[in-house]
């Protein structure tokens, strides 16, 4: 009974995982081969394909190993699951470690916050300070038109001051408040003489916006931090789930060995 329960449960779980891996793999291939795909989508396709292949291989090993009583395939499955548990645990700890610093600064009389790159962890700062990384990120931001909604707005300065901007909109689509530029509309500002020492004031232009500004990098890092915090919470739930699956897999593996030993002993005694 225990053999049937644990093996059937592992078989069902891995069949569901196998079904999930097919659309994930298909989505990764589709992203990589889209004729009009952006740089972001092509960059994202490689990890999506790798994750899909991993799920496909592991689920097949678990499915065949449990349902066909192939002990060595179950051993491979358990090894892969153990590696996955360690990887998810390390990723979760790392995510909390690199996102424990930094937050947006409230601006007096404004509905949005402003972001400074130096407030965040050194690891995140180095990732966006890298020219190669930033060129790719900037290309993604421009392709996704993150400032388009602001450019199309025709709101008054009073309305703009009350806007609840995202970190990326605040950092990349407007000049820093300290520059004291004159607001015209959307993303149009008139440069005025300023005593601010912020280098972003000279970087800003109505055509290129602030995609090369430190504030834009800070907005991207703030977005990473928010998303990584969410991923870390999801990872904790996922970790508990795969530990339970791993435990059931261990039971199925032990039952497989016991069943194989019993069959070998029964045949030997019968002979």
Automatic annotation (TrEMBL):
<dbReference type="InterPro" id="IPR018499">
    <property type="entry name" value="Tetraspanin/Peripherin"/>
</dbReference>
<dbReference type="InterPro" id="IPR018503">
    <property type="entry name" value="Tetraspanin_CS"/>
</dbReference>
<dbReference type="GO" id="GO:0016020">
    <property type="term" value="C:membrane"/>
</dbReference>
<feature type="transmembrane region" description="Helical">
    <location>
        <begin position="12"/>
        <end position="31"/>
    </location>
</feature>
<feature type="transmembrane region" description="Helical">
    <location>
        <begin position="231"/>
        <end position="249"/>
    </location>
</feature>
<dbReference type="GO" id="GO:0009734">
    <property type="term" value="P:auxin-activated signaling pathway"/>
</dbReference>
<dbReference type="GO" id="GO:0006811">
    <property type="term" value="P:monoatomic ion transport"/>
</dbReference>
<keyword id="KW-0472">Membrane</keyword>
<feature type="transmembrane region" description="Helical">
    <location>
        <begin position="43"/>
        <end position="66"/>
    </location>
</feature>
<comment type="similarity">
    <text>Belongs to the tetraspanin (TM4SF) family.</text>
</comment>
<keyword id="KW-0812">Transmembrane</keyword>
<dbReference type="Pfam" id="PF00335">
    <property type="entry name" value="Tetraspanin"/>
</dbReference>
<dbReference type="InterPro" id="IPR036719">
    <property type="entry name" value="Neuro-gated_channel_TM_sf"/>
</dbReference>
<dbReference type="InterPro" id="IPR044991">
    <property type="entry name" value="TET_plant"/>
</dbReference>
<keyword id="KW-1133">Transmembrane helix</keyword>
<protein>
    <recommendedName>
        <fullName>Tetraspanin</fullName>
    </recommendedName>
</protein>
<feature type="transmembrane region" description="Helical">
    <location>
        <begin position="72"/>
        <end position="98"/>
    </location>
</feature>
